[in-house]
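We now fix the convention by which a protein and its fold are recorded. Think of the row as the fold of the chain written in a discrete alphabet. Here is one such record, which you should read through line by line.
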Amino acid sequence: MKNYFLTLILLVLGASSASVAQASLLGSTVFLSHRSPDLSSVTESYPVNVENGTGDTNVFGLVYTSNPESDRILVNFFRPFDFEPTAFNGHAGEFVSEPINDISVDTNLKGWDSSRLAYTQNSFNFNWSGLTVDQDSYFYAKLSFAGNNPNQPTVPEPATILLFGMGAGSLFFPSLKRKFSQK
């Protein structure tokens, strides 16, 4: 009876601590760039090892900062500026290690609409062509990754599998112990 109680505790602990690894940019190297007058023309580019906080923030063209976080790109403008109306004049990111599923934007940029946003599984770009910004302007893009899709099956972390295995093993071990002690 004591062993079954221990098994029950291990199984409950395993079920309650079951966690799923979430896709994230943390620890990845992402290439952030400003591009103008078209998407193929890089005016400034930085490889960024993504970490929590502001240690990975880069300044672009003395106009804005870009700070990648685990699931978002935080852009803050720190001076008035008119983005020249060209085919493309904006921010881009490449070599995102996790497949991008969707991007939502929170911004106070007048004239911004979703037609200025484009992304693939491993890149994104935000076209600010013809827009005007000031020191109070911001642009926050939240990235949803394919690995975080609630409709996809979840894969438990190794610790969860270990707890379930210990619980199942403790159910089997007492009968095995009795079997060999009777011989």
